[in-house]
Each structure stands twice: as C-alpha cells, then as structure tokens.
Specification:
With 193 residues, the chain is mainly β. It is 0% helix and 52% strand.
Length: 193
C-alpha cells in the first residue's frame, strides 16, 4: 500500500502506506495537481497560467516508478491556461473536469475570448481522449460519480447538476450553497457537498 503525493516540482512522491517514509517518485516533468488510484494510477499535470506545456493525464506504476502512457488535453482556441477539478475514474474512463481560460502573461491586453468549463473523458485502456463535454463558463468546483446509478454530479457556485455520463446532458439541477469538492455515497442516494 502506498500514498501518492503530487507536487509542483513535477513529481509524484510515493510513500509507504504504513510508515509514510519515501519509497521513490515518478517524474512527470511538469507540476502535478491530482492523482487518481485504480487498476493503474493516474496523474493530472501541466502548468496553469500559460507558462508551460498543455495539461496531460499520465498513467504510471507506483511500484516500479515507471510511466506507462499519457494523453494531452488540448486547449481550445484562444486559451492558454487550465485548472483541473477532482478527476474521477469510472470503469475504463477517467473523467477530468476542467476550466480553460486565457492569461495575458505578457500584459498585451488580449481579452479572454473563450473561457470554458467542461469534462474531458480519457479512455484509460488506450490512453486516448475519448470525448469532451462542454458547459460554457460555469466554474466547476467539484465532481463525483455514483457507481450505483452511473450518474455524474458537478458543483458550481450555487448549483448542483446531475449529468448523463454517456452524453454529458444535464438531467437535473438543484440550488445549493457554495461548495467545493463532492463525494457520493456508494448506493448513489446521497451527494456530500
């Protein structure tokens, strides 16, 4: 058993799950923001703020410290920065909520023309981008999937949306207080905000 700690130096630190002593690290080369455990383990990395490579999902083996695959998540036209929120592995798909936007890093007064929130879907069997759901500028702050129902839930400021994981369609909405990350009960009956 291991503990995976993403860090902004471009590594995933691998700690022994019992002693919390370092066992090694996986070098991603760009700041790491999230890890997701499954049959393989995954990391979300990239450099927000328009100063580095585009976002990448990397598959790795924490016992050998080897990278076994990766896929880039391309920016839309006119955007150069990204934030990632609470990726979730469901079956063979990794759902990666994102917010793409433009940062005027050179003070050229270029307006943001394409702020966009959505969910990138990565097929982990072949490490390919399988699709993307687009939701405009909604500011996704939390995401969860209920395995019992196969539904996804996105939190944005003041709203919870239930989505169909096949089509991305919003099925239902509910007003909620401002929230952060989400969690779902195993039976799919409760979403924790």
């Amino acid at each position: 058993q291991v503990v995976l700690l993403p860090n902004r130096t471009g590594n995933i630190d691998v700690l022994d799950g019992h002693t919390l002593r370092p066992r090694g690290f996986i070098n991603l080369g760009t700041p790491a923001y999230w890890t997701v455990a499954g049959p393989s383990d995954y990391a979300v990395s990239g450099q927000p703020g328009g100063f580095g490579p585009i976002p990448t999902v990397t598959r790795f083996d924490p016992s050998t410290f080897q990278v076994t695959g990766s896929v880039a998540i391309p920016y839309p036209p006119n955007d150069n920065s990204a934030l990632y929120v609470q990726p979730v592995l469901y079956g063979k798909y990794l759902y990666l909520p994102f917010r793409f936007y433009f940062v005027d890093c050179c003070r050229q007064s270029i307006p943001a023309t394409n702020e966009e929130d959505g969910i990138a879907i990565i097929d982990t069997s072949n490490m390919q981008l399988a699709g993307t759901f687009h939701y405009g500028a909604t500011t996704i702050v939390g995401f969860a999937i209920t395995p019992a129902t196969g539904k996804g839930y996105m939190a944005s400021f003041g709203q919870l949306r239930e989505i169909d994981l096949q089509t991305g369609a919003v099925l239902r909405t509910a007003a909620i207080p401002n929230s952060g990350y989400l969690a779902a009960s195993p039976d799919g009956q409760t979403i924790y905000i």
